[in-house]
Amino acid sequence: MFYAIYNILSLFLVLPVFLFNIYRSFKRGWPLAIPERFGFVAKHLLAPVADRPVIWLHAVSVGEIIAARPLLLALRSSYPLHALVVTCTTETGKTTAERFPEIDLCLYFPFDFLPSVKAIFSAVKPRIIIIMETEIWPNFCREAARRNIPLLLANGRISDRSFKRYLSFGWFFRPALRCFSAICMQSATGCNRITAIGAAGSIVHEAGNLKHDIASRPTNDTDRTELRIRYAIPASSCVWTVGSCREGEEPFLIATYRKLREEFDNLLLVLVPRHTERCGIIGGLLEQAELPFRLRTSLKENDTPLRTGEVLLVDTVGEMMDLYRLADFSFVGGSLVPIGGHNLLEPASVGVPSVFGPYMANFREIETLVREYGAGVQIQSPDELTTTCQTLITSTELRRVLGQNGLKLLRDNGGAAARHLEIIARYL
Question: Of all residues in the chain, what percent are helix, strand and coil, respectively (each to 5)?
Fold first, then answer.
């Protein structure tokens, strides 16, 4: 009965969803990819995976695909004859995934209309499906179960804020959760929450956080010099990289940078918004603050280096880790405003200390570890940002200690990919 009602309602949503996709694509400059959104994949795209058993992994956007990287590498190593197919919902996620050489094919995830789901299943013919975090779609899950395809949830998490909402809509999620063969959650709390929502306890496993398995490698002086040449940054600059900043944070970050550059004449800001389509707005804010800036896309080989006091505004995707590697210290966005934060382990994995705000609800476990290991500095208000940055700029030793602590955090807390792989192997 649930699926009958769901699919009847879906019929009324086809046109609105179609129109919204067109609007969003034009607004953000994404390709429409209408056929793939409705499950139709061109035959020539499927050529690299033809006649091979397919492992299908779905990751919504950039954060999920980066978290999936350790698992993808482990799957490639353990199953070299299998094809790795990845689907993403967003253009930025797909663009990032396409840069991973271990992936054989990257597609857009279809709308959850029954004909769309059936079409992509028939095209991809997966041996197993792995869904990252908590992306649960009723028709998709049911079709996997109907075709006897093992369906696994990897790196599952349910934030404090989301849990009440999931509980309220347990009637919606419960039928889909019953279609899973195994559910791997990041923590014991996550296991309890997914069971409370409706998953069968017998299939729920605590497997750890794949984000802890990000390859950790401190950036040496040679690498940093090469990266700074690539991005036209003077070697002598003290570089502050702001990663994944969100709407509402930029005014505070820009105001802080204006104050800091008056005191430190070798400081240079690299500003990386979470959504590149906001670069026009952010550029306007920089102009209002009378801060000179250059767009990443405007840089050319052997370009004139930026001057200290300038801003490099990054209007590309997929370069975040390199921009952390060339930094002396970082700020991780989404944490000064109630967004829920972003991944603190990215700068930690390259030995770069991070500053972050109080709003880390989506990364509570990682926040706790970073604080316990002393791998970053948490501020409680924008007013603390200036003084914290001043301390980091003036203390090379503090930056070194925080960076080393971040590398130790990753060394001590890895192993999630191996635990996931052990469970996946039962179904391959």
Answer: 50, 15, 35
Strand partners, 45: none
Q: Express each pLDDT in 341-364 by its tens digit.
A: 999 999 999 999 999 999 998 888
E strand or H helix that includes residue 155 = strand 151-156
Residues 251 and 391 in one domain: yes
Alpha helices in 29-137 (DSSP H): 34-37, 43-46, 62-78, 91-97, 114-124
Residue 42, CA atoms < 13 Å, CB-side half-sphere:
8
Pick the closest to residue 266 from 228, 234, 233, 238 (CA basis). Answer: 238
pTM for the structure as a whole: 0.83
Please identify which of the residues 64, 143, 249, 346 carries the catalytic annotation. Answer: 64
User: Which CA distances in Å does 198 have to 50, 135, 202, 395, 406?
Assistant: 37, 15, 12, 51, 36
343: containing domain: 221-412
Per residue in 211-257, pLDDT tens? 999 888 888 889 999 999 999 999 999 999 999 999 999 999 999 99
Structure tokens at 57: 């992994």
In whole angstroms, how far apart are CA 70 and each of 52, 67, 154, 283, 357? 22, 7, 12, 35, 27
| Range 136-169 burial, b when 16+ CB lie within 10 A, else e | bbbbbbbbbbeeebbbbbbbbbbbeeebeebeee
Q: What is the mean pLDDT of the chain?
A: 93
Domain tally, the chain: 2
Kindly state whether residues 142 and 240 are assigned to the same domain. no
**173 vs 382: CA distance, rounded Å:** 38
**102 among known catalytic residues:** no
Half-sphere exposure (CA, 13 Å, Cβ side) for 34? 9
Phi, psi of 87 (to 5 degrees): -115, 145
